[in-house]
């Protein structure tokens, strides 16, 4: 979270590590049903099918999408990891297996001793009997003040590698901290996958933070944001994909749909050679002298 309903017809907006091959990615935008894991899994599966039909290899979905982002949901009974990793995920697993799309999606979880805003990664896996793996590699590290009533911050960063391209994981408020994206970049990420949820009044901040993270680090940013209503909450969408200079390659307003573009590893290299903030970053600026 960083505090209009979606249209009924999905809309697609299309823009133009070890891999040198472009990786097609999508930011998926839709409304989530408050507290209805099964309905939200079905929506995620539908968006995965839509993405797979357009050659997408990685689909990013919004913050807390599988549970819904709403105070009443957070204050109530949340699913446990076994719930989101078990048979209730099968509709999404089936689409991942059918399309080959890796899906990155948020969920609010009860982990017993603590609650977290977590990232679920569902991906093809030839080493598993069912051909699909699901894992929870990341918990949101920067928990907003309004979320601290319920959730604890995660203790480590995480990345996912798809087709030889490393992609850092991020949840909403994480992207407001330059050092979070910097850590992903330093670890080898060529892209930064942000699951988010922005309330009315937050568009100007949303549209500053994520292009800045792209420009700071000379890498791509994929922002997937909630839209519509969820319980008593409303969200403004604004999902987008930014190039390594912070330019929007594809973006949505508040409609349901996909923003699609490609991550080009060679453009990351070229941009970092031209705009060297990533290389010239200093670990310390020394003591401060006051004149």
What does it look like?
The protein is globular and about 60 Å long. The protein has eight helices and 15 strands. It starts with 10 loop residues before the first strand and ends in an 11-residue tail after the last helix. The strands form three sheets. It has a seven-stranded mixed β-sheet with strand order 1-15-2-3-4-5-6. It has one domain (11-278): Carbon-nitrogen hydrolase (Nitrilase/N-carbamoyl-D-aminoacid amidohydrolase, 4-Layer Sandwich). Helices cover 25% and strands 30% of the residues. It is of the alpha/beta class. It has helices at residues 37-52, 71-75, 81-85, 90-99, 178-186, 203-217, 265-274, 277-280; strands at residues 11-14, 23-29, 58-60, 102-110, 115-124, 132-139, 159-162, 165-171, 191-196, 220-225, 227-230, 233-236, 240-242, 248-251, 257-263.
Question: Could you write a compact summary of the structure shown?
Answer:
With 291 residues, this protein is of the alpha/beta class. Helices cover 25% and strands 30% of the residues.
Contiguous uncertain segments of 5+ residues:
2-9, 12-16
Calculate Rg over CA atoms.
Answer: 18 Å
Total beta strand runs: 15
For the record, the CATH architecture stands as 4-Layer Sandwich
Anisotropy-based shape = globular
Protein name: (R)-stereoselective amidase
Keywords: Hydrolase
EC number: 3.5.1.100
Enzyme class: hydrolase
